Amino acid sequence: MGRELHGVEIVDTFAEAFDMRASRVIITAASEGWARTAAVSMTGFATSVIGCKVEAGIEAMLPASDTPDGRPGASVLVFAFNAEGLSTRLVERVGQTVLTCPTTACFDGLPDAPERATVGGVLRHFGDKFQASKVVDGRRYWRVPVMEGEFLVQETFGTQSAIGGGNLLILAKDQAAALAAAEASVDAMRQVRGVILPFPGGIVRAGSKVGAKRYKNMTASTNEAYCPTVRGRLGVASELPETVNSVLEIVIDGVDRQAIEDAMRVGLDAACGPGVVQISAGNYGGKLGKHLFKLHDLLN
Amino acid sequence: MITLTLKEQPSVPLEAEVLSPDVTAELSNAAIRALPVYLGKRQRRVEDFFDVDGASSDQITIKGDASRVKWIGRAMTRGQITVTGNAGMHLGAYMSGGAIDVSGNGSDWVGAEMSGGLIRIGGNAGGQIGAAYRGSNTGMRDGTILVGGGAGLEVGMRMKRGIIAVRGPVRDFAGLQMRGGTIVLGSGAELRTGAWMMRGTIISLRHLPLMPTFLYSATYVPGFLRICSAYLDRLGFTLPCDEQEGAYRRYTGDTSVPGKGEILIWVPRGA
Questions:
Q1: What residue ranges define each of the domains in chain A, with the CATH number in brackets?
Q2: Is the pTM of this model over 0.90?
Q3: CATH second-level architecture of B2-23+58-268?
Q4: Which residues 221-240 on chain A approach chain B with CB closer than 8 angstroms?
Q5: Chain B contacts of A151, Cβ < 8 Å?
Q6: What is the pLDDT of residues B127-150, one digit of tens each?
Q7: How many C-beta atoms lie closer than 10 Å to residue B231's C-beta?
Q8: Which residue, of A133, A189, A282, B226, has the greatest Cβ tally within 10 A?
């Protein structure tokens, strides 16, 4: 049975999320602009582990006072299915997008995590034996000579258990209302630390189901139950009320359950705007993921 | 807390490696008083030289002029030693953890071959800080030594890792045969700095007379210095790294070895 928030029905359902591994990467640069440029580059094409092998996003921009080297920075969260995959993706992405970006340095944002992924210890080979390491306060950094000067990167980055796939579905009477609500929700969620919204602008319009009904090789395909344009077709068990003509989803990855709950709670509240008919969530009946986020619990 | 008050300065050096938190942590007052020390070749008891207050603690305070008391904190792994006064040779040698704070002067071989922990000397120190003992290949392997005043010969000789920062002037052969780590010279050094160094970094905030076997590389502010600066700043030692204020001239060497070390000399903007 639905409950209401700001006049919007909150469906009695839950978001189903999965275990993942996460790292936090701190990128610093000579200016906030260059730190952001590197972070945006690093988190590009990282919307879904299904197609990108990794999910990543900017957790927050950091003032100089909050970074290891006292320069402006960005905190990036990177999620993968396992530690091995995460380690590989970190090396690829830091190597191709941060090492190459002017003035940047790259630091571990999970210094207390006992499980480590070797990143700088691999990227150092770009230095072709002209590189040098430095241990400061028990942490090893690599100085890789580049044409601009030196690229400084920490040898290892912490990895920790995390949760991917928290989500909200915003069901609205039209596209404009859905987009406005989703944007408001994203703005609210981005104030919460420990989470990222990996899709473009934090919003996904192409929510998927596992596999496909008609193409055997597809690992994911469109979630027709929430597609308004196929409502009424044979074989479609639509979940949409008559008045709903557009649906947007916000996917949330977090370093722990609390972070995702906090983000979903503020996002839910912000999403209940004009033209929104229902807020729901995507799940697989609780059979696939062990982390269930009940929307009604968030209201409490 | 254990407080040891020196009754009078010994006539010859007193070897007192038992003055270590690892030794005193579990001992009663009587047991601490009975610990053996060596006055020359003669074995004596701690209580022959110190008034002992407290027991069973890894926090030790030594009061008085202990400039003839050797090996304080030898091989310590934890706890804190505070010396209100001077300390003798080999202070914190072989230590791997904990902290030593000396308000007065240190002597030679401070932190020799240490592998962790923190030593702070408020005044001057002697030579061979963090160095390798004669016949040994490797000096300091990790940890931090801060000296508020000046220091003597062969600072950081054969050190491999860790940081030595000396606020005052340093004598000849700083970083001799250095193999890694970082030496910060707040007021420069005398001759042959970095001689035969293989790796590592010597940072000088004042002009240095360089050997001809060090070759100029570039003028810039290395990124790792910001990390060093943040670390040293927490310990009360300032390392400039603001590009608006200046930059470091980097020299590589010692090419006579040939080595891959570096000497960074701070040049204020406009100088």
A1: 3-16+163-298 (3.30.70.520), 21-160 (3.30.70.520)
A2: yes
A3: 3 Solenoid (2.160)
A4: none
A5: 223
A6: 999 999 999 999 999 999 999 999
A7: 18
A8: A189
